[in-house]
Amino acid sequence: MKASQFLISTLKEAPADAEVASHRLMMRAGMIKKLGAGIYTYMPMGLRVIRKVEAIVREEMNRAGAVELTMPVVQPAELWQESGRFQAYGPELLRIKDRHERDFVVQPTSEEAITDIGRQELRSYRQLPKNLYQIQTKFRDERRPRFGLMRGREFVMKDAYSFDRDLEAAKRSYQQMGQAYRAIFDRFGLRYRAVAADSGAIGGDVSQEFQVIAATGEDAIVYCPDSEYAANMEKAEALAPAGPRAAAAQAMTRVPTPGKATCEDVAQLLGVALTTTVKSLVLATDQHDDRGNVVKTQVWLLLVRGDHGLNEIKAGKVPGLDGFRFATVPEIEAHFGTKPGYLGPIGLKQPVKIVADREVALMADWICGANEEDYHLTGVNWGRDLPEPDTVADLRNVVEGDLSPDGKGRLAIERGIEVGHIFVLGTKYSVPMNATFLDEDGKPKPFQMGCYGIGITRLPAAAIEQNNDERGIIWPDAIAPFTVVLCPIGMDRSADVKAAAEKLHDELAAAGIDVMLDDRGERPGAMFADWELIGVPHRVVISDRGLKEGQLEYQHRRDTAASKVAVGEVLDFLRGRLAA
Amino acid sequence: MKASQFLISTLKEAPADAEVASHRLMMRAGMIKKLGAGIYTYMPMGLRVIRKVEAIVREEMNRAGAVELTMPVVQPAELWQESGRFQAYGPELLRIKDRHERDFVVQPTSEEAITDIGRQELRSYRQLPKNLYQIQTKFRDERRPRFGLMRGREFVMKDAYSFDRDLEAAKRSYQQMGQAYRAIFDRFGLRYRAVAADSGAIGGDVSQEFQVIAATGEDAIVYCPDSEYAANMEKAEALAPAGPRAAAAQAMTRVPTPGKATCEDVAQLLGVALTTTVKSLVLATDQHDDRGNVVKTQVWLLLVRGDHGLNEIKAGKVPGLDGFRFATVPEIEAHFGTKPGYLGPIGLKQPVKIVADREVALMADWICGANEEDYHLTGVNWGRDLPEPDTVADLRNVVEGDLSPDGKGRLAIERGIEVGHIFVLGTKYSVPMNATFLDEDGKPKPFQMGCYGIGITRLPAAAIEQNNDERGIIWPDAIAPFTVVLCPIGMDRSADVKAAAEKLHDELAAAGIDVMLDDRGERPGAMFADWELIGVPHRVVISDRGLKEGQLEYQHRRDTAASKVAVGEVLDFLRGRLAA
């Protein structure tokens, strides 16, 4: 490809609304162009990256035996009413009425459409397992689209769906997709982690996220440097501390803590470690009648150590807490007799269920609110000052240095960007949509399904968050818009440079290398700056001076200096660099 | 590819709403699946065809120097308000409100979005010409979607847009696209015609349709078997007859024609040729004031020979008739004193402008309505019975046997399906959207644009309309879902057949041939019927009996019988057939 036949449109400045590096750099490198909030044109330079991502995903999906199809972008609402999602989905679901006032949606995912295809096409167990996927435009009407392709409204996703006879088979399909995903992410050339994620109602180890590591990532990833353990923050288990509870050493004491409504403030006031304090969180669960009216409310007190954070996913798994909400201030005052900030498990006005985090359950001589404004209790001890907790559970987010759940070391935490997610759906869609096949016994059974996504247009943004510097993007070879850029110096003045540059371009192209010849006639500084911004990993400079010595200059985007390569050896040299 | 790893879903019966062969066969062959009215999933078998069409289009567009990008499916209404199309477009434009009640559209084409990109990215004449294209999902909310992919609501189109300095350069870009289109359509392996189409306000020879020839096509294509002339019906010129007008031979006579309100009926009643009658068509043009109120209406009488049809595009080009409408019955009665069916140019109540078709202007002794119910006039002659017409123009559709406008023979007519269209847009979008570049003289000038479409998902349907028989589809090699199908007989019983089939599959695949091995274990009759329905052009049958003789059976989808090929020669044999 020659620059004169392409569309290169770099910008000096990123638009003011570009908050993160990938957004700024994709805009400045002319890879995307905003058409509306969260809606971008994939410009020629950006589209090349997206196409390379697509090609890798397609190859590996096909290799794993998945079959490609394309479902419509605009889908009739009827299917979404069958699954219940037309009602349940929030305003992120873009709803449309057509000319006949019939309801449609713009697909955010395609579970309903694929389940409809499955129930029509997959009639017999003999046709199973089957994995169908598409690489197609999606739309989610985000309330606050931002970060460019990272959280756009229109985006491209690869979404695959597996159909199986039973849950065991579905788990095998899931495992196969896990392998395919590792092959895909290995090929992207990015640092990533496959982390266990919460698998909701299915339970077990059947949900993984593929996270591209980046300091700017939205997600916290928990891993053990000494083992294979990796999970997202929602999922990562906090083990119970080793050893028994210490014996009580202090008497329980009511201490004034005027205006100190947080554990941090109380610990500071009393000159004690934050780890001696206990945080009180008040939840509620409602029972409904057939009409949906609340007929009974149970209030719960959850206790976690002052320096720990509540993990709401874990809280929702405590028996009885499924579907909880945070209690209202009137509910809190009715049960505790005071306002938030001074709450505790002792001296309640009305009974509440008490759930202690594993850590809290083993604490002695701890500090909590006195259920009286501006007072806390110190030296509190289970058994002596209050009954043992109704329930002990893992309620908290892990922190750096916690024991790894596999017992093989201590946990570390880093940031990631979720770019892939695989999970077993079970019968979540097949049962409400009555999607069944005839099993070997002649009886209809609902499909056990799985669902496997990759954010095709998000991946380039994640790659940039991981790989950039002050000069611009640094693409891994596999998804670079061009692998090699040829920068001739003074091509318009020197016939030698022009001839050498064009010859090399044709030679590399014929060898199957994705090469760009910058024949725009830009000055060297501007030309180099453009390609460093765009992030092409390999650069070859052709100049009269070099040619006189029979040499070209090679520099990798990460190199600090150029190295000389004999003209005749450039192809072999590059092949070596690309294979590396 | 092996059938067991694919999704084959042929149907015995097509759904009742499938009216045309391509719709029926694509449904029966499992290529598409209806999700809603005019909305289809491209099933794996159909998607393979679409991807091959896309690949050919992409290769030739790139070869022609066009650059690919992807514009959003969901587009903000603001741009469409700038161009005026948000108001002007009918209900075919699918309009959406997002969660913030802002207006959006689902793109039916992307002139606005590309013009917006052009005005931002193409600042200087040095960047011109530039041709940008996308292959992307479109939506048109057809009132009555039908014929499967032929007139769906959601579809995939390749749309390209050129930007040029001036109209001459735009015409060169248009010519280059014409060449690229011929290369593309040649590669599809279909019979097609590039026909001149009406170029609207631009004028000149700057609009062509690419029509796939098919007896079931919606469009009439006019061509000259003895020359290169080809045009669509709207555009094809009807030459004036050779020679002067004959002298009047009859006296004008008022004859009773009770209840005979059509030329056909009158000619039959009077026992004369239909070619001696003249049809009267009454049009009107309105003048509006600034508020859009009609302030003046001009009534026009258009005269075409009784056996000819009015061409409304041509009528609209008569000076003064731009934007005409058909006159209302009250308007007709006010000017002619009678109701439609007995109208004519003689004895008007109020003046009308008379436009005669070239043919009519040279007629003598003709028949027309007497402007009196149940009466016609015979023996009417220009100059003697009424003044010469105000205007003489080409008003009619050509008919088979008319002289070719290039003077090289006579016209023939066949049916076609429009699959491509190229035309010069001029400044239709650049002026209202203020899309300018700085020309060499330093002054801003609006782009001269061109627009080039190919119906990617319509092409397979057109290919089928052209190539099918009672057994199913017959694909050209270039766009077949698979080029070769291997049909082993008794693969599940015979280890020899299985080994030979799998070896051949691997051999052909390694040679880059797109081969399908049907390893489903179907009986020969059902297996052959499936692949004849699906339309794979080349079939190789592997059987025990054949293998004993060292032979396989080859049959092209159009062959009436199979021919034997030695096992060791199959690859070379197929290469020869595929090259042919």
From TrEMBL, chains A, B:
Swiss-Prot/TrEMBL catalytic activity: tRNA(Pro) + L-proline + ATP = L-prolyl-tRNA(Pro) + AMP + diphosphate
Main subcellular location: cytoplasm
Swiss-Prot/TrEMBL keywords: Aminoacyl-tRNA synthetase, ATP-binding, Cytoplasm, Ligase, Nucleotide-binding, Protein biosynthesis
A GO cellular component annotation in the UniProt record: cytosol
Compartment(s): Cytoplasm
Domain Aminoacyl-transfer RNA synthetases class-II family profile residue range list: 38-476
An individual GO BP term: prolyl-tRNA aminoacylation
Subunit structure: Homodimer.
Family: Belongs to the class-II aminoacyl-tRNA synthetase family. ProS type 1 subfamily.
Domain notes: Consists of three domains: the N-terminal catalytic domain, the editing domain and the C-terminal anticodon-binding domain.
Function: Catalyzes the attachment of proline to tRNA(Pro) in a two-step reaction: proline is first activated by ATP to form Pro-AMP and then transferred to the acceptor end of tRNA(Pro). As ProRS can inadvertently accommodate and process non-cognate amino acids such as alanine and cysteine, to avoid such errors it has two additional distinct editing activities against alanine. One activity is designated as 'pretransfer' editing and involves the tRNA(Pro)-independent hydrolysis of activated Ala-AMP.
Protein name: Proline--tRNA ligase
